[in-house]
Every structure is written in structure tokens, then in C-alpha cells.
Amino acid sequence: MATHLAPAPAVLPPPPSFITEQVAEIPVDQIDRSPTNPRQSFDERSLEELKASIMANGLVHPIVVRPHPDDSTRFQLVAGERRWLASKRGARETIPAIVREFTDEQALIVQIIENDQRTNLNPLEQGSGFRSLMQLKPTYYTVEEIAARTGLSHRDVLYRLRVLELIEPARQLLAAERLPFRHAVEIARLQPARQQEALSVCFRGVTADTVLESQYHTVSINLADLRAWITRNCFLDLSHAPFDIFAHDLAPGVGPCTTCPKRSGANPVLFSEITPNSETCSDPACFKSKASALVEIQVASLAQQGQTAVRISDSFRVGAPEEKEDVLYRGQYRAVERDSCEFVQPGVHSEDSPHTGKSIYVCLEADCPVHSGASRYASPEDARKQKERPPDQKAERQFRTLLLEEVRKKLGKVARKDDINLIARTFFAHMAHQDRVALFKLYKWDAIKSPGKHGAKHVDYLQLAGRHLASMGSAELMQFLVLGSLISDLAIPASNPGESLSAKSALAETAKRHGIDLTDVRKRIGQQTRKPKRRAK
Q1: Residue 435: φ, ψ to 5°
Q2: Which of 21, 150, 297, 491 is deepest in the core (most CB within 10 A)?
């Protein structure tokens, strides 16, 4: 076996595509996969196509290997794993290869660059490679250094490192290209429990396994709406925190917010799109623990003064699991003035209140001679705010309500084409993604891709459907609405793949109303599936 061993270079070697050294035929079974190769997944169809090409035409580009660091009789792959795997499948005994003396560091760099030049790595694989480099030489391979070597921006490198924090279902969806990369970055900023909630928002409660089983199922929320949901539900504004964000010992084992890596200010590049103007906390559980500790401190302080405080909340009791038995909710106490009756005692706002830790005076006595006629649902401050509410809000709502009433008066008994078109467009906009795709297939409309805001191409189903609907007449629009109402019955749940269409389903009942024999349709399907396929000539 003749091989050519080049001396170890002092600097990073050029990408393998440009190496002009002697190529040697090496036995395929003497080559081992590299444990540092960031690529973890291979497209089966692509591998089969490559195998067929290699069997027919041979291997055009040699692979790159290095002497195995742990076995002098074997080699280890550096670049070209797809070609090696396809050659093994094609039962080739040898494969053309260039042997070079690579260090672990050089091998990892070439693997990342080589894979990017050929079939792109997915973001998780890229991030894994970047992290391996940073662990190999932390002081040298910084985010800035990796960005310079790969041609990515500083932010793009951070994004690829960030998605490594995704929970497993989200990682699977991202690798399968069902979860868009930018959606994944937003979700990866969250704590695991919140990530699961965000996935449920993205896919309308459908599990990751069900999404992966469906060929066309993708997210049902755009990036801006996802960010808005995260801002409302997952990020807490530290500038309005009820506790001291500089405190070191507010809660056991928890340091100050100012040095916490889960604070947006600790990484402004990564959090800039969601929280551009404020310092926010991405760990609601930690935030809540500090708020709870503040409440206990206030209760203990009042106890030292000889006062027994009750914990209160601004919220109404609705039976939610997070409600606490030792907290009084709106309707269970009255906010009153100090010393206004003999039953007055302090109340401390609980951690779920905007006024966490602050104390007011409350009366709990149902038959209090002073306060029994007062409302339990509005404090004096609430009443004052109600009176001070800007009148333009009320006027605007009245304007919109009156305008809708005027439209109702103008609508005739027979709907106009423009009105039916409005209904159809609104109806389509509220459909699940898979139902939109199914309607396009039913009508044989082309799903044309167009450039998005961030460069990637996508199908704008709303815009395309709007064009088709605009060309329809009133009768065609009514047919579209009927078909759109039935389209969801095409879906067969992954949890019950053997399910038959229910006789009570909207699709079955509509077919019966129009005189369609369901048994005859099933018979025709059976005849089609039993037809022998024509042999290719």
C-alpha cells in the first residue's frame, strides 16, 4: 500500500479541494470515522444517488485522511465522509485518498470548512463544531476568531452556539427543517419548560413527533408574533423588578441579577431583537423565587413589629394550578384605610402581583359595620384610575362599534362578490398550514416560492391564494368556502393511522347530502390500488 505522507504544516493547511498531493488507493475498511466530525446526519436519498454515481463513474474528488492517532495500522477520516459511506455501500474495496499529518485542531477546522463548501451542515452541527474548537483552545478560538475563519458574522456564530441549548424535540424539528432557524434561536434563549410552551405555540399544540410524521407541517406563527409572545410571557423587565437586582443573598444559592448570564444585558448581541431597550430576565422561575423571598422578608418584618400580615393578590381566583391556599385573591378582602375599623390588618402583595412585597391595609370581616357595603373588587386607587382613563379610548371603541353597525345595515340579503371574497381570504388566513397546502393541491395551484425578508425563499400562501380568489366569481367563492370547511377531514391523526372517516364527519355528511355514495368511492379506490403497475420498457 503506497501512501504519501506530507510533513506537518506549521500553519493551517488549505482546504482539501485545492490539495495537489499524490493520491493513494486505501482499503475502505482500514478507515475509521472521525469522532470530531460535526456532521451527524446524512440524507439517505443523497447517499444513494452518490453511490450510484461512484459505481458508474468512479470517485472524482479523493477523500482526506490522517494516520489514526491511536492505531498506526489504520487511518482516520478528515474530510469526505459522504464519499466514504457511499463507497462502502457500493462495495468498493479501496478509495482514492490523500494522507496528511493533521493535528486534532487542524482536522477539526478542515472538517468544518470542507463540509460548508460541499453539502451545508445544519445549524446544530455547525454549532457543535464551533463549540468543539472553543473547548480545544478556549483562549484562541473565540467567537470573533471563528467568525473570521468561517465568513459568518459575530451574531451568526453566537446563534449557532445558542441553538445547542434547545430541548430535544426542538433540535429534531430544526434538524428536519420544520422549525425555522430564527424561530429556533428565539426559543433557545428560554428555559427548558418555556421552550416546550413556545414549541406548542409554534405548532398549535401538535407534538414534535406528529409534526415530523407529516410531510408538510411547519410553524403556524411568524417570527414577529413569536417574539411578541416570548416578550409577554417569558421575559421579565428587571428595571421594574420589586427586589434589589444587586442583592447577593435575597434567595438561597442565587446571586445578583447584574452578573447573571440569563440577563439580556449579559449578551446584548444575542438578545437585541427581543429586548432592545431594557434589561430583562429570561428565567421566570428565578425571578419568582426572588420576588417570593421579598414577600417573606416583608411578612417577617411586620411580625417583628407585632403585626400579623396576610398575603394578598391582585388577581381573581380562577382555580389555576399555581394559585396558593395561603394567598387571598380579589373578592376575598377589601383594601381599606389604616385604623378605619377594628378588623384592619396589613396585607402583603404576593409574588404574582405588580406590587410584590408592598403592604396595604385590608379588612377580611364579612359583617364589618364600617366596610360591609364596600366593594371587594375595587380599591380606592382602582376607582381613581378608572375616572382618569383617557376619553379617546372610549370614543375610539364607540366609533368602531358604530361603524360595524352601519356596515350591518348596508349588507343585503344576498352577499356581494367582494364580501364573499373578504370572507374567503379571512377564512384562509385562519387555516392551519397543512390545510392551506391541501387546498392548493386540491385546486392544483402552484406553490411558488418568493424571497423573504431575510433572504431565504418561502411560499407566501396568503398572497398567492388572494390572487386566485380575486379571479373567482361568487359561486366559485362559495364552493371554495365549502371545500375549505371540509379540508381538515383529510388529515389522519398520527396517533391513529388506521382511522376510517367517521360517518358523522363534515366531509361524509356533505357527500351524502349531495348524493355521493361513499361505498362506491371506497370501491373505486380499491380498484385503483389493485391495478398492476406498467413495467418500464
Answers
A1: -75, -35
A2: 150
Transcribe 380-405 into DSSP letters: HHHHHHHHHS-HHHHHHHHHHHHHHH
Measured on CA atoms in the order 321, 326, 331, 334, is the torsion positive or negative? Answer: negative
| Residues 324 and 356 both lie in one domain | yes
Residue 152 CA to residue 110 CA, distance in Å, equals: 16
Query: What span, in angstroms and rounded, lies between the C-alpha atoms of 312 and 332?
Result: 9
- CA 372/CA 367 separation, integer angstroms: 6
Listed as own residue / partner, the contacts of 224-229 with beta carbons closer than 8 Å and 24 or more positions apart are 226/183, 226/186, 226/187, 226/198, 226/201, 226/202, 227/186, 227/273, 227/274, 229/198, 229/201
The count of structural domains within the chain is 4
- Write the pLDDT tens digit of every residue in 425-438: 988 888 877 788 88
End-to-end Cα, the chain, rounded Å: 45
81 is catalytic: yes
The chain-wide mean pLDDT, for the chain, equals 79
SS3 137: coil
Residue 302 lies in a domain: yes
Q: Which of 221-225, 318-322, 480-484 has the lowest mean pLDDT?
A: 318-322
Cα-based distances in Å from 525 to 213, 271, 504, 535: 23, 54, 21, 21
* SS3 category, 449: strand
Range of 423's domain? 416-499
Statement to judge: residues 178 and 106 lie in one domain: no
Which range has the worst mean pLDDT, 42-46, 139-143, 275-279, 333-337?
Answer: 275-279
